[in-house]
# Entry
Amino acid sequence: MMKASSIQRLAVITRSCHKRPFTTHSVQLQKIQPFVHEQNPISDYLNFQQKNTQHRELIREIFDNPVKWKEFNKDFIPPTKVSLTGKTYLPQVEGSIGLFQNPYLTSPEGLLEFCEKSLSAAKNLVSHVVIDDSEQGRLNYIRNLDRLSDTLCRVIDLAEFIRVAHPDEYFVEAAQKCHEIMFEYMNVLNTTSDLFNKLESVLGDEKIVAKLSPEEISVGKLLLTDFLKSGISMDDSTKDNFIQLSQLISMNGQQFNKNLHELEHDSIKVDKKELTSYDSSTENSLIYSLSNKKKIPLNSRVSTDILRLTNNESLRKKIWLGLHQPAKDQITLLENFLKYRGLLAHFMGKNSFAEYQLSEKMAKTPENVMTFLKKNLKDIEEDVISELRTLIKFKVENSEKLSNEQVIEMVKPWDRDYLTTLYLSSKRSSNTEDISQYLSVGVVLQGLSDLFQSIYGIQFKAVPLKPGEAWHNGVRKFHVTSETEGFVGIIYLDLFHRDSKTLNPAHFTVCCSRKIYPEELDENDPFKVEVPGKEGQLVQVSTAPDGTTSQLPVISLVCSFNQEEGGVSLLSLSQVETLFHEMGHAMHSMLGKTKLHNVSGTRCATDFVELPSILMEHFANDTRVLMSFAKHYRTNEPLPLKLLQNYSIFNSFLNNCETFGQIKMAILDQVLHSNVVFDKDFDSIDLYHKLEAQLKIFADTESKWPGKFGHLFSYGAVYYSYLFDRAIAKKIWEHLFAKDPLSRENGEKFRSKVLKWGGSRDPWELVADVLDEPELKKGDIKAMEFIGRR
# Structure
């Protein structure tokens, strides 16, 4: 994920959108332990459920009962149509309130107008803050920069969401144009000397600083650092080059990510005899080609079934390599933005982009990251070998006689799915019930609401959509309400599969929470974006009893769960974990109580931002939590404990191999963002193959897979964050929730010590406070070693 630069501090697109890594890592289901607190949490749950039956049941019904959903969501969104030019579009809804209740967003043209108005308001604000040198102007300077950031990011974050989730191609085109306009303007702002000089002057004025809040000072220092990292001290010619490099990185990276799901070839040809080990029903579904050849479509159920079910290793290898060969120009795009990043880092006096990127992160240096990753490799080596020995039993006889080196050499990446299927089949009884029947989307969302009520005192309330408010009629809307604060935010859930949206589960911040200051409430405020027709509002607000007005967070969670014929969506344990993970990001957005946009919720250090979401994976894999809500989607029968225990074996299988894969990707990320990009013969694929050969396990020395590794752009040099935050989350889980996952006391501790602060405090201080380990505040090599200790 790219570092956000000054005015867009922590609001660059990839900062707002949090995606899961390509491979999933399952936390082993926690064993049942006695609860240690005075009251029985299950009893608390039951009391809560009785008092809130109507709201709770509605959460479940609008997902699991299509009839109920249609009754509830009366303002039907029409299906997409195809224009004469062949583009998909969404017919305009009569009386539309606008996407996300933004009255501009009733059409693609309205989105462009919103962008234009926001840009105009931003320019007016910039002109004002630069020339206003009064004492009050200087006191308000940092919060005005923050307001400027919010104005621009409400367009950029919105545009990023629309580009990956909206079914209307005209809307997507408008969003792309808005993104380009705003991104270019932000790059100009980030190298505007007048803004930097004024900020430096304000922070150097002791009388002014004495009157600023700690949060304002923190944001001011962050912005100052980011200005410096954006080359503010460069001469004009060098600044121009810096801006051009930033734009080239963005253009190449965006195109790289856009092409991630495209392959070099759509299908591969195989001899008919290669399919003799495969069943005839699948053979008949293949596309006939000339002579005795057949074409197997790669992006299809057929290819994934072959990987799982055929004993023909040669055929599995063909399919696997085909699925890992990116589109023709992907490697060129990859190496372009890697080289441009290296040049940008050199402009800033750094040896590599990794060094440039990590200086403000928890890990601080590439050396610290590599030390952490190598220690992780060493710690799990024996467990990985053990898992491979389990797999090799299904490939060769007398495998126990093989050395570790022979086992590693014999188990290939294209063997993994096939051997795993054989192993799981040997463990699964033919009459084993499908656990997903107890984990419908509605049941899981109801369980999440109950869990958040238990640990944080908040819950979800389903709200009907207004005309034109959503982008598809499968979207559900929830208000998030607190026992003590009332209405705290809005979540839009777009959870079901369709061809026109991203396949990767993701959390998008459409609008951040922040304080709205009195001058912004003035009807004559010259720096606000005017509401068209003087009706409606561009942001949702709430007013506290003390009169403080706040902008409410608006977020969207996007997944791609399949639906059964009846409309219900039944989840695997892995998919439940995915939903809990994304909800962890959502809670960070909802419960971050900062006054400034730049440090709100998930706008924090990249190697800290995954912590709340990974912690939620522990809840998703805890037997007690799952047993508290899981029930059959038809009969309401509770999930049998024995069934859950049986499935825990399947869900946790190859956990260590998954972690090993994550470490390999994190090391590759570091290597490709090092100074190797300046080598005359720099070849990203050659480096990838050498790394794979060196690490040996599931080694891929033939494909060009880095061309499909999208996180190389969005998480450039900080992909280790998932592993790092997983290590922190494990320690927090053990410290706070392992004995009692429903503890309100410890939930409030995590909320007040971590979530509340967003990115306004040093994350090492937050980790030290929540773990009751004061020494960690130093964030030194000893702190890194403590986190890395298993």
Remarks:
- The longest strand covers residues 486-496.
